[in-house]
Amino acid sequence: MIVCKFGGTSVASAEQIQKVAGIVKANPARKIVAVSAPGKRSSDDIKVTDLLIDLAETALNNEDIESKVQIVVNRYKSITDELNLDNTICDVIADDLRERVQGDKSNRELFVDSLKASGEDNNAKLIAVYFNSIGMPARYVSPKEGLVVNDLPERTFALPEAYENLASLKNSEEIIVFPGFFGYTKAGVLRTFDRGGSDITGSILAAAVEAELYENFTDVDCVFSANPKVVNDPVEIKEITYREMRELSYAGFSVFHDEALMPVYKIGVPVNIKNTNNPSAPGTRIVPTRLTSGRPVTGISADSGFSTLYVSKYLMNREVGFGRKLLHILEDENISYEHTPSGLDDISVIMRSNQLTPEIEERIVSRVKNELHADDVQMRHGFSMIVIVGEGMRNNTGLAARAATAISRTGANIEMINQGSSEVSLVFGVLQKFENQILQALYGEFFAPVNA
Predict the structure, then answer these.
(1) Distance CA 175, CA 137 (A)
(2) In the list 82, 192, 303, 416, which could disulfide-bond 429, CB 3.0-4.6 Å?
(3) What are the DSSP E strand ranges found in 313-452?
(4) What is the Cα gyration radius of the chain?
């Protein structure tokens, strides 16, 4: 059995949904299909998810929602008209939207989540209707039928019983069309996954039914070794390990969300990233292990939007529990951290800037000064993390020196270096303004023909 997921651009229009049907029909093993909400049809288009967020905000402001509901319904209607479907499914979608906007608004986050999730939910219903209309027996399955997730306030994840519940889907004679992006708590509360949530849903389904393969269809032929918007004509990656992909996804590889790897990683289901618009292309396979080539580096990625909490205290290294107390202060503010490079008398905690507000920063700095009696405490912003990844790195001497030399040629200063214990990644913290220059310099160092 193959589980396949189709992203927003893959289901953005009638033409794209027809391609999806052709892909699913081409291989009888493709029995479970997870789908996103309709994405952009062109660069100046608006995603259905964004239309739904606007609708939710309108409802929360107690303004007239009817025109906004109609905009969303019309988007689906344009699809059904081109697919020659009757208006029944559009009536179902309209009724569903009106029911959601009349729902409980006491928790703003949950109300918005409910509206956002309707994009995937209603698209799955529509696609199941279309499959049946062209002689492909299909059944829409709601996440209510088994995708059980945790309660607030933690970020959303599938509970162990979700995998047990969904395992029965492998016995279906029909094609299962399953909406991505969300699940339900045991109390029946809808919760959405983080960005890339449909990838996570597909991965959960693949793990639950112990699929032979999880195909993730998007709008690119494969994963590239660097961002093609920054580096000209980067090398294509044909095969990559879970660990390598996890590291690259963490730092800006948006093709596949890093959290989506966990369910399939646990049981060893391989992933194939493919292009809906060019399904014959081999794509990129994500596998448990692979043979390493002569090139030690598989990929280079970068992500911006990081901040650093710098703490200095003389004889810090002699003070038992200092690091624990520092991280506990961050925990109290519900802040997660990314790296903690340190010296004898100082430590830096690197975190995502979007977790911070001026009030949170002020409390953190004040508590570190007063409770830990630090000599110097500073919150710094505007950093990027550059990640060099490769299974072959552990057996390659001098790689860090080569990377540092390449970075120095850009005139940028290295603010932080961190190498994971697995030795498949090397992370450099730099000022955000140098990010693209450094990516280009590192790509030239490790992927120029002379190094191939």
Answers:
(1) 6
(2) 416
(3) 346-352, 376-389, 416-419, 425-431
(4) 24
